Structure formats: structure tokens, C-alpha cells
Amino acid sequence: MKVKLWGVRGSYPTPLNSKAIEEKIVKALTYATPGDISSEESVRSYVSTLPVSIRGTYGGNTTSIEVRTSSDELLVIDCGSGLIGLGRELMASEFGRGKGAASIFLTHTHWDHIQGIPFFTPFYIKGNRFNIYSPVDNIQERVEYQQALTHFPITLDSMMAGKRFFHVKENESFYINDTKIFTKSMPHPGSAYGIRVENSDGVFVYTSDCEFGIDEMDHIHSYGDLFRDADVLVFDAQYTFQESVIDKMSWGHSSATIAIDIAMRNNVKRLILFHHDPGYDDEKLDSVLLNAKTYLNVNRKMANQLTIDLACEDMVFDINAD
Predict the structure, then answer these.
(1) What is the C-alpha to C-alpha distance for residues 83 and 67, in angstroms, rounded to an integer?
(2) I need a surface site. Which of 43, 46, 100, 297 has the fewest CB within 10 A?
(3) How far apart are the C-alpha atoms of 79 and 117, rounded to whole Å?
């Protein structure tokens, strides 16, 4: 199973502006030695050693995930602005010829999870086929409403690809060929769902919008059927711990501290902190990861094999039982 992150930001897209790019260049040059910039080759070698926060960015697109099974079937989870880049890449394949087929799972319909749909080029190509799954009761109506003519000049029906909507029940599994999909309701205003994707390769779990406070942590064992033994867990860590329990309580998001506690209790192998706050620049995100690793090290005896990373656009995970 191969997983690629196309959008990692929460709430709304955050493209870099000129000032932010300038600051990155200044930092890179400040750290450089004369030898680092003596030729194009040396410059490229030097830049490759810099952290993501200086040589690039963790990303500004909202949530969208590509999952490829071992049989190369495509599952897209959520359709934020990151979906647009995925669509461009798919157009170079059978989707550009109107012969593509894929499944889409929508965890909920807040804007940062559906705003890429009107700009997803494969939806405009006749012959492409998409099955869209969600535990949301009126999922088709919600997606269509985003493209009512009062909101967007092209309706969903005018996008010529075939699109079929399926309502799935939470706390029950269904299959897309040999891949088992399980979904569970998450604590989030307006409702949202986590998804567990499991096949012979391993287990990938994604829950990008969830607020686990003290009450939820008291019965976190009831979420074990979602989190348990995940090879990779992508988890909502939009806020700092203080923000999640004081400043922004009931806003619907968790912290890295909570994510680590849940991962440790459920024997997760790799935790990816996700759904970055739009107010956090790359330097702030560096501190989020540093603080998370510090917390993990303090609790290392409980953590077993757990490793932590910060979600970054274009990050790829290969999950293989072998």
C-alpha cells in the first residue's frame, strides 16, 4: 500500500507570499559557507541538506490523501485543495483519456475537505468513473450544493465523469475489492469520521478532524477498533496542547500531545501529525515537531516502536507487510 499526502493544511489554503520566500532565502544564505555556493552543483548539494522549513515548505494545501493498493487501485481520502495537484498528475494517465476509475472517501464536508472538487480536472473528462463513499447521510446533496450556480459557475452534473454516491454505515466495515474499509465517528463539530484502510500490506488510519479532550480520553479504548496496530496513523494535531484545552476548546481539533498518547495506547508504529493550523508558518511547525519528539522521549518506555513525523506535502509512505 502506498500513501501520498497532497494536502496537509487545515481550515483554508495558505500559499507562501514573497516575504516568506525572501526570509527562507536569507536564512539559507546566512548558514552557507563560500564552498556551499561556489557552483550550481554545490548549491544544490547544500540546499538538499537544509530542513524543509528553509529549503521549502510543509505545504499550504488543504487535506487530500492518495492511497494506492498493491493491485494499484486508487482511493482518494478527502478532497481539499490538495486534490487539484493530484488531478493534474492523474491527467497524464488513463484519466486523461477518459478511462480512469477510482474511489473517493469523504470524512465530512467542511470546506477544507471538499473545496478541491470543482477544480479536479478528471471530473471533467467523460468516461472516467468515480465511486464516492461517506458515512454522511446526504453526501451527494452536500457536494452538489457546493457547486450550485450561486457558488460556482459549473454544476457537479456538468462535470462529465461518472459519479456514484454511496452511503456507508459507521462502525461497520465494507470492502473495495480486497481492501477493507472501516469508519468511525470522531468528536468534531458538525460530525466527522475517521477511516481505517486495511489489506494484506498493512493498516493505514486517517482522522484529520477530531477533538479528544479529557472526557474522550477517559474512554479512548472504545476507539481501539480504529487505531489499534496501525502501521501509519495520520492524526489531527492542529493546535498546541494549551490551545486545545483552553484557548480553542470545542473548536474541533487535537494536539500532538493527545495524538502521541493515543498512538502509544494503540501500538501504532508511525504517527504523522496533520491538519496544520493556517496561522502556523514553517518555523512554528518545526517547533511543533520538536516539542512532540521531546514529549515522546519523556514517555519512551511507553512508546515502544513509535516514531513521529510532521505531515508534508508530497510525503509518501510505503506500507508493506513484507
Answers:
(1) 12
(2) 297
(3) 6
Write the CATH number of the domain with boundaries 2-14+60-318. Answer: 3.60.15.10
Q: Residue 247 — pLDDT band, cuts 50, 70, 90?
A: low
Each residue's pLDDT tens digit, 44-97:
999 999 999 999 999 999 999 999 998 889 999 999 999 999 999 999 999 999
CA distance 12 to 111: 8
CA angle 200, 203, 204 (to 5 degrees): 135
Cα 137 from Cα 103, distance rounded (Å): 18
- pLDDT of 298 strictly over 90: no
Three state DSSP letters for the chain: CEEEEEECECCCCCCCCHHHHHHHHHHHHHHCCHHHHCCHHHHHHHHHHCCHHHHCCCCCCECEEEEECCCCCEEEECCCCHHHHHHHHHCCCHHHHCCCEEEEECCCCCHHHCCCHHHCHHHHCCCCEEEEEECCCCHHHHHHHHCCCCCCCCCHHHCCCEEEEEECCCCCEEEECCEEEEEEEECCCCCEEEEEEEECCEEEEEECCCCCCHHHHHCHHHHHHHHCCCCEEEEECCECHHHHHHHCCCCCCCEHHHHHHHHHHCCCCEEEEECECCCCCHHHHHHHHHHHHHHHHHCHHHHCCCEEEECCCCCEEECCCC
Where in the chain are the domains?
2-14+60-318, 18-32+40-55
